[in-house]
Amino acid sequence: MRHALFVCALLGSVAGAAFAQEPFRLEEAVDAPSWLTLEGETRARYETLDGQFRAGGSGSDQLLLFRTLLLAEADTGAVTFGAEIQDSRTYLGDAGTPLSTSFLNPVDVLQIYARFDDLPGLLGENSATNVKLGRQTVSIGSRRQIERVEFANVIFSYTGAHLISEAENGDELHILSVVPTARFPGARSALGENQLSGDEEQWGRHIWGVHYSRAEILPDLAPGLSGEVFVYGLEEKDTRSAQTPDRSYITPGFRLYRKPQTGRWDVDLEGAIRKGTRYGTSSASDTQSLTVDGEMLYAALGYSFDAPWRPRIAIEYYFASGDEDPDDLSFDQYERLFGSRRTDLNNTSIHGPLTPANLSAPGLRVQVTPSERWDGWFQYHAAYLASPTDSWVIARLRDPTGQSGDFIGHALDARARYWVVPDSLRLEIGASALAFGEFAKNAPGAPGGDGTLFGYAQLTFDF
Question: Are the C-beta atoms of 392 and 443 separated by less than 8 Å?
Answer without folding.
Answer: yes
